[in-house]
Amino acid sequence: MTLTDILPTLRMSIPDPIDLRQWPPGTSVTIDDVAVQGFSLSTASALLGSPMRWATDDRSTTIVIVCSVSAVLDDPVDPILLLDCDVRRGIPTDTDAPVIDIAWDHARLIGRVSVAHKHRVQLLGDGTHSRLPHTLAADTDTAAVTAPLPKDLAVGDRIAVPCTVGDTPPRTSAEGVVARTARAV
What we know:
CATH architecture: Beta Barrel
Shape: globular
Helix content: 10-25%
Structural class: alpha+beta
Radius of gyration: 16 Å
Largest sheet: 8 strands, mixed
CATH class: Mainly Beta
Low-confidence stretches: 178-185
Number of strands: 11
CATH topology: Lyase, Ornithine Decarboxylase, Chain A, domain 1
């Protein structure tokens, strides 16, 4: 348990601690963001959209996935969040390296500061956006995972989570960010 867990209002002035062994090399944190080799994941996901995979280079076996909260189900015991990514496989595509492990215990809220206490939140998502949260909860293939996140998460909040990938991860660089941003404009 950290000081920001005991007194969450401290997150307004100091960032939550981070286990750098779980994140790509060159990761740093601020009170409301995670930066990988100087690139803000909050800014990148605002420009590129969500869900998003971020890798430092072709040799890295650790990437970051940024997902957005699509819906919040109020549950008497714990809230259930629907994410716009597959909570078991990340963001699977035919051309990207497969995700081996998603470290949900190291997930972080980015884009805003929360002063709410953290607790284990149930996360659902199959990456399709086409199923209602209650149908996902009943599906054994999309069983919920849990992550220690602030209690006040809302629709639109973004969550960054480190992942281990096999073989060669996808490449996202400053040139890719500029190219995708230029196409969008």
